[in-house]
Design brief:
By secondary structure, the protein is an alpha+beta fold. The chain contains 17 helices and eleven strands. It has helices spanning 3-15, 79-86, 98-105, 130-142, 151-167, 170-183, 197-202, 205-215, 231-242, 296-307, 313-319, 353-370, 374-389, 397-406, 413-416, 418-424, 427-438; strands spanning 38-41, 47-52, 58-65, 109-114, 119-126, 221-227, 266-271, 278-285, 324-332, 339-347, 444-451. A hairpin with a 6-residue loop joins β9 and β10. α12 (353-370) crosses α17 (427-438).
Amino acid sequence: MTRRTALKGAAAATLATPALAQSQSPARRVDQPLFGASSWTLANGLRVVLAENRRAPVAAHYLYVSAGAGEDPAGKSGVAHFLEHMMFKGSPHIPSGAFSRTVAREGGQDNAFTSRDVTAYFQIVEASRLPLMMRMEADRLAAPLIPEAETESERNVVLEERRQRTDAVPRGRFREAFDAAMWGPQHWRGRPLIGWEEEIRAITRQDMVDFHTAHYASANCTLIVAGDVREADLRRWAEEFYGPVPARPKPARSRAAPLATAPEPRLITRDPGVREASFLQSFAAPSATWGEAMQSDPLEVMVHVLGGGPGSRLHRALVEAGHAVSANAGYDGDVVGVGSLMVAVTPRPGVSQERIEEIVAATIARLVQEGATEEETRRSIRQQTAGALLALDGLGAAPRMLGGALAIGLPIEAVEQWPARMAAVTQAQVNAAARHVLASPAIATTAWLLPA
């Protein structure tokens, strides 16, 4: 997920937050920190971050674990996500199911999510209820029950979630097959986040206990609090509730390198459940943590020039020219390990596959050979930063951005100084990044989802 995408997600989360007043911010200097967050570390290794926001008496409490589906053991995809479900099944002082009931009774919201790189648990509540959230979250971080008696019923919930989101959705099945074709079905990037069905069925309680023991050390977690909270109060509460969590060694984090080439460089899927064709093309790329990491910011700019909506090259060549309904490009660079750059096109009825591929290839070739112009570079930077910054007044932006970055090993400055770094990207850097990723990609997959 790019920082721009994270901001959009934070904005969406903010809109769903009750009783949260929105207000206009004064003009922001490009060198001004986004959130002005403060950070410190407890004796047990837990990092604590506070982003004060006093516009409403509300607090957001996020606990990030630096482990996600990418840490699933070989042959046991889905463990990280299954454990996320089981973390709601009680802890020494909180009975099974009582966590969410308590949050709801206090008028708040709670949930959790698992990505490839992190697992996060969060609550949004009236600010005075923050200590209660911290006490409950610390309790299950230290010692979740993961009861054997509830494992099978929750397995069925996970399998039903997989059926609804993937198995019953043609595009979900296609995207799962595409990732496996690009990276390999047992590579951490090629496995589905929720897990392969047969492997979900084989996960045991002990697998989840082992995963918790290995990855849920306090030193492997980041606590992010945003909202109407004072630093002195948060320091006291963090010591009181999280300080007693026993310290354990922080696990080393390593991700397998990608294969030398894509296992399946071309994939054609026909499905009776779809009525219109879809085209995907993906290329391995440096990320903020892998390969030539200094290219991650230029790649964000470059992919916007290539396919960042109206005015982008793919949009002009395909949508404005009447060949496609939609055409865009995205970059997955804020990740642990190898990143990816993807092109997606929905052709207009009657336009051939060959014509779409021809136009995409020609558009990419021109970008590689001629480069982005200075005007395109500046416009891309301006659109990305100005559009994304609209989300900053919302309560959800700070914990999503700060937690997501810190949990994958990036410094806090990677978020706080993002606009300044983006503004410093040059035309030459953008064009060098385009050549590096797109000129002669070793790892790439082209795929079509077609009506049966």
